[in-house]
Amino acid sequence: MSGSMPFYQKHHRHYDRNYRSRETESAVSQYQQTSSRYSARSSSSTQGIRAATFTSLDEGRLSPMPKRSEPTYLAMDKENQIIGYVVPIFRGSKEFASGLSDTEDMRAKETAGYLARRDLFTSGVEMERMEQKSRRTVMRESAERISLTKRIHENEEYHKRLNEDSLMHPPEFVIKPRSHTVWEKQSVRLHCTVSGWPEPRVVWYKNNVSIDPMSNPGKYKVESSYSVHSLEINRCDFDDTAQYRVSAMNSKGELSAIASVVVKRFKGEVEESLPAPRPQWNRTVFKDPCLEYGITFETHIVEKFGVSFGNEGETLSLGCSVIIYPSLQRFQPEIEWYRDDKLLVPSKWVQVHWSGDRATLTLTHLNKEDEGLYTLRVITKSGYETHSAYVFVRDSDAEVAGAPGAPLDVYCQEANKDYVIVTWKQPAVDGGNSILGYFVDRCEVGTTHWSQCNDTPVKFARFPVTGLVEGRSYVFRVRAVNKCGMSHPSRVSEPAVAMDPADRARKGASAPWTGQIIVTEEEPVEGVVPGKPRDLMVTESTKTYVVLSWKPPGEKGHEGVMYYVEKCVSGTDSWQRVNTEIPVKSPRFALFDLAEGKSYCFRVRCCNSAGVGEPSDPTEATVVGDKLDIPSAPGRVIPTRNTDTSVVVAWEASRDAKDLVGYYIENSVAGSNVWEPCNNKPVKATRFICHGLTTGEKYVFRVRAVNAAGISEFSQESEAIEVKAAIASPAPPFGITVLESVRDSMVLGWKQPTFIGGADIVGYFVDYREVIDGVPGKWHEANIKAVSDRAYRVSELKENRLYQFQVRAANMAGVGIPSLPSATFKCEEWTIAVPGPPHDLQVLEVRKDSLVLLWKAPVYQGRDAVNGYYVDIKEADADFETWRGVNEKATSKKYMKIRDLKDGVSYVFRVRAQNKAGVGKASEPTEPVLAETKPGTKELVVEVDDDGVISLNFECENLNAESKFVWSKNYEEITDSARLTMETKGNKSKATFNAPSEDDLGIYSCIITHTDGASASYNLTEEGLKELLKVSHDHKFPIIPLKSELAVELLEKGRVRFWLQAEKISASGKVEYVFNDNIINQGEKYKMNFDKNTGIIEMFMDSLQKEDEGTFTFQLQDGKATNQSSLVLIGDVFKQLQKESEFQRKEWHRKQGPHFVEYLNYEVTSECIVRLKCKVGNIRKETVALWYKDGREIKANEKLDFSEGVLSLEIAQISKKDAGVYEVIVKDDRGTDKSTLNLTDQGFKDLMNQVFSVIANSSTPLKIQSSEQGIRLYTFVNYYNDELHVTWHHKEAAIAFTDRITSGVVGEQLWLQISEPTEKDKGKYAIEFFDGKGGLKRTVELSGQAYDDAFAEFQRLKAAAIAERNRARVAGGLPDVVTIQEGKALNLTCNISGDPVPEVTWLKNEREMVSDDHYILKFESGKFASFTITTVNTNDSGKYSILVKNKYGTESGDFTVSVFIPDEEHGKRK
Q1: What are residue 1283's DSSP bridge partners?
Q2: What is the DSSP string of 455-476?
Q3: pLDDT tens digit string along 83-114?
Q4: What share of the chain is helix, strand, coil (3-state, %, to 5)?
Q5: If you write DSSP's letter for every residue of 1349-1413 in order, what string do you get?
Q6: 1315 burial class (0-12, 13-18, 19+ CB within 10 angstroms)?
Q7: What is the pLDDT of residue 1422?
């Protein structure tokens, strides 16, 4: 079978998956059997539709294939009326509606059909017929597949041969999508064929919003195959009624086509026993819908969203976690979201998401329309759970300060061919100035151009918009304006189509039509003038316009008529046509520019191509003006307490208000007269909860009513109300345990309710009942009077009987509901030796890393008294085995501060008591406590006031009216005010020590009731008390703090300044100046200054004389605070200051002429040049500078520089002869100054040491060099001085020089020569430069590879030198050219050297010669070689060579012999 299957089905993701499961086959078969009865009943009524496509019911019916009939592509209803065009399902498509391939679908249907008829048809003939039919079907489909594959291949080959460039063209719809009308729960497929090259990109739109199949899996399926594009909408519901647009785009252009889908609802045709339709956008489609049957689900909504606030334009998300028990993997609940009890559906403004355990609603772009009460409903078959909270939307910031808020709820009414009425609601915020009116804008769907509909603002919240183009769709928005400016535009309305309501009804669509719809009208009967319009009336009248309404004439054949409207002033018969140029098409018309207060009559005429008809009957006289009045102000406003941040506001409704839209509520902090809106969307009820208020603040409220005519006056202000939680009865206590049991009584303990109702709990009531054979009896009161402790002894019980207990808490609001019954306890005598459990555990002072735990002693002590406690801790979610002790040693206190907690982790605690017998049973654990420091947490602060009073201070921002400050010492409430006085004002409390002493040592804590656990403590230790007492003493007897004590400094001209600075001193501060116990005052000798802003106190003296020796004192006084500071100037201290003052005065006089700013000094450059320099100030052109050495002036030919006040003298290659005393004198007519530099003895040594330091720092690293004599170490310096002292080291020891190891200097190179090196010469070498300080050392390591390489190179060079000395050489004696006369004798001799004695060979013209009578060749004594030609002839001319050779080398000597004949011409050579 697979061989006949198309390639595009073999690789499809759904191929051969679903129906290979036996479980799925069984489910399909069962569903077919349960629906067979319905299928048979409805088969006749749905035959027309079934012939065209698969419905949702046909998909479930797997009956045998009926006899093939001629296909029809028209969908028909029961009356055989054509209601749409249905796209046939091509065999070449990838997937049918069932999700199966062709062959797999047929096989599944045949198998299911066989199972369904197995009991009815058992004949073997019937089975044989089915098998034959199946074979025929397979063969036919196989042939079709082969034919289709061949055609596809041929088509591809054809296009490959075409030129792409010549074929490029924009998209074109070969087949456009057709409109469809389908029933609910059916699927519909829109398809089209698009041509174009390059291949167009196709996108589907619903109401001009692109369709994303992935955003709603299973709802939409988009396919594209061979230029055929389709959009399949599964299980249509009424919201799928819309206009669908397909857009094709490529590089050449874009083209769109439109089709409409209308979904009809069943009217009683579906059996009630069938499952009710469920919206598909908020739940998952399951393969097996029967999973939930027979199961009871428990739904819990946790992590709930609360009251939320947002601004216009923002994005806001609401979410809740949902827990459903039992948890089934394939079951999901229905999730529904409501706003003000109206079901929300996904749109561009609203997005919903269900992740499997969390439901989220996202408002993508907040507008005031989004304000309201939001409700989440989680629905299962067992029921539903809901959670609600209010969302408030504030106005965004206006573009112009003072501009009003944007209008809201823009809605279109009475849409007709060329006009529509737009309504809206006025904003709550007018910007502080009355709204002058509103502007209405319109925009055609599919464009972005907005045009203003009215030239002047309208005050009425309704406006008729005319001049629309029939068949086009529009959206509208509204803007408010006041004298400050324009508001932001409102949210756009839903699209409205300009269309005759009759045409819309005739099309049978109640869908949200959008886009352009082409309307075709019947042609009127020719030659017939239309009759009179009927039922003309004034439907709406305002100050600015009047709306008329009428019915067309009753005769048939007048569908194409249009209308002229006429008006006249009442009492006259002067009719004036209003629309003179263009008649209107709609039986509605709005008239503007009417005089307010005047009375008018109106009539209408029909017209068509045959002419204008008779006028209608005129209307009654209508006075132009608002028929709808602005509502009256609401009545009395009554606020009541609700929560810590909200108040319930109720008011009396406006009287005789017509068409009331709702109410706006405003609040103001009492006394501020600054009003803020509580709601930005009108509420119709007369009760509203105002959220977002400040706890503890007092507010007043007022209300306004709203209708289309405007906003009413404000109601009277309410009485001021403080924002705090309303008082309610407390929640039930919990955690009931037995603390002690005797024969006839039991002591119970329990935990405080989690919610105390906003008021202190005044007591508890305990009930008990006896349990006999597991059956509980009646409840009996254990106490008539409330008990304040969380422990109570229940008496008059019977021994060995079983009892249950319940506890109720009471506050000023009443007695709360009882707790759940406790566990069953047996009343019997406890005889155990160890103590019972501690009880009433409390947690205070919770911080991110610590907290304080308190508890009460056990009621049952055991055999001995309790002598200590142990505290245990574990993380809240940890196992029971993880309990661990906090303290290793028992504590005798009934409190403990637990440290080293982890931030953000929840813990539980328990306490165990011990006596001599051992450790008893642990207490009940506390509730989980989260280790965190809450925002706004304050600590207890110790303060000492100006009078020295020590106090403990604590404050809290989140107080309410019932909150109280409770002070404790060592966590026991302080009731005696003998030692501590408590005072509370507002949100602050102070505990003042009356007479602090060691009796007050301890831990002081403060707890604030009716808060979320606000508490803090302070441990007053002995050291801390001593420090506080010291500070207290300083405050009682204050001193003026000083930033600096009295000091003295010298100023210019040798003036003396005495000064000190106080940290802070007031304007009334005073100071007295004292010298040697005598007050001194302002005068010629003393100048005083007191700057009270900076606290600086000064006294100036021009000079110090001998009589000024003594003690100077500044005495300060500022109110009752005093201080003084003294300075003693006696003896050497005074003399030194006096001397320095005199010197400063002389210096000042010196600087009046040319003077040395920097005295003569020297520096050594990197080139070892010594530069003497000084800097002179206050010079002129005539200023002269003279240089001297040893009293002798340095002549002008020396290098002098006198520029920019700097004098310099350079000494190159300094030596001992340059030592001496150098002096510079600068002078002009204003004075003379001199600077001297001693460069003798130690001064010269210091200079040379600096020179040596520069030389040393310029040295290069030591390097190794080999030679024929040995190894040389060397370094280079920039400059060498003969006075430079250098030491060579080997292995950290100074080298003793010998004939073999020598050192020296060549130019700027310093070297160490090691001749004939040996193994002993290995090691670390260094050269040390001495500069009179630390010196500088350069080192090199002559060992290892470095030594081996150097030694090898030495051996090579040495051998090369020996070879060079001993190789064979021709020392000389041979000429380059010899010219000789023929017949003469030639004798040449040369010296030969070499060891061993070289071999000598003579060559002529590169050929070896042999000694004979003509050529005599001799080599004598190993040194002399001779060459003799006895008689020269012309044949002896040529090139001759001598070649000497031994084992060290070879050398040659060449010469040329030229023989000439005397008889020939002179100079001619042979």
Answers
A1: none
A2: SS-B-SSEEEEE-PPTT-EEEE
A3: 443 433 333 333 333 333 444 445 545 555 54
A4: 15, 40, 45
A5: HHHHHHHHHHHHHHHHHHS-EEEE---SEEEEETT--EEEEEEEE-SSPPEEEEEETTEE----S
A6: middle
A7: 81
Q: In whole angstroms, give the CA distance from residue 744 to residue 793.
A: 10
What phi and psi, each to the nearest 5 degrees, are found at residue 1412? -150, -160
Half-sphere exposure of 335 (CA within 13 A, CB side): 25
Structure tokens at 911: 């306490």
- How many angstroms separate the CA atoms of 1306 and 1229, rounded? 54
How high is the pLDDT of residue 205? 92
Rounded Cα distance between 141 and 915, Å, is 95
Question: Of 487, 494, 492, 314, which is closest to residue 392 (Cα–Cα)?
Answer: 314
- In this structure, are strands 950-955 and 941-944 parallel, antiparallel, or unpaired? antiparallel
Per-residue pLDDT reduced to its tens digit, 409-431:
999 988 887 788 899 999 999 88
Using the CB atoms, write b or e for 1236-1245: b if 16+ within 10 Å: ebebeeebbe
Integer Cα distance of 383 and 386 in angstroms:
10
Please, what is the Cα angle at 469 between 467 and 472, to 5 degrees? 135
**Residue 432 is encoded by which pair of tokens?**
């502080």
Is the previous residue joined to 677 through a cis bond, with omega within 30 degrees of 0? no
Nearest by Cα to 372 from 755, 829, 105, 679: 679
* Pairing label, strands 437-444, 451-452: antiparallel
Residue 551 to residues 536, 548, 555, Cα–Cα distance (Å): 7, 11, 11
Mean pLDDT computed over every residue of the chain: 82
Residue type, 931: A
Q: DSSP label at 641?
A: E
> What are 237-248's pLDDT values in tens digits?
878 888 899 999
Q: How far apart are CA 605 and CA 577, in angstroms?
A: 10
Count Cβ atoms within 10 A of the Cβ of residue 498 and give its class: 0-12 exposed, 13-18 middle, 19 or more buried: buried
811 and 759 in contact (C-beta within 8 Å)?
yes
Using CA atoms, how far residue 476 sits from 400, 410, 465, 492, in Å, is 23, 7, 10, 5
- Enumerate the β-bridge partners of residue 905: none
> Of the given ranges (224-233, 273-282, 798-807, 996-1005), which has the lowest mean pLDDT?
273-282
**Contacts with 1159 (C-beta within 8 Å, 6 or more apart), sequence order:** 1174, 1235, 1237
Between CA 590 and CA 761 the distance in angstroms is 69
**Under 8 Å between Cβ of 1271 and 1351:** yes
Residue with tokens 């869908």: 511
pLDDT of residue 1230: 85
Q: Letter for the amino acid at 966? A: V
CA distances from 51 to 54, 96, 775, 1387 (A): 8, 15, 69, 138
Examine the pLDDT at 312 and tell me if it is beyond 70. yes
- 1168 — alpha (psi -120 to 50), left (phi > 0) or beta? left
Query: Reduced to 3 states, what is the DSSP secondary structure of residue 428?
Result: coil
* 1029 CB-contact burial (10 Å; exposed 0-12 / middle 13-18 / buried 19+): middle
Is residue 1456 within 8 Å of residue 1378, measured between CB atoms? yes
Tell me: pLDDT of 480 over 90: yes
Q: 601 is written with which tokens?
A: 């009559």
* Cα–Cα distance for residue pair 1048/1109, rounded to 1 Å: 13
Decide: 791 and 739 in contact? Cβ < 8 Å.
yes
Q: What is the mean pLDDT of residues 783-802?
A: 92
Count of other CB atoms within 10 angstroms of residue 372:
19
Contact 993, 1025 (CB under 8 A): no
Burial 626-665 (b: 16+ CB within 10 A, else e): bebebbebbeebebebbbbebbbbbbebbeebeebbbbbb
More confidently predicted of 329 and 1103: 1103
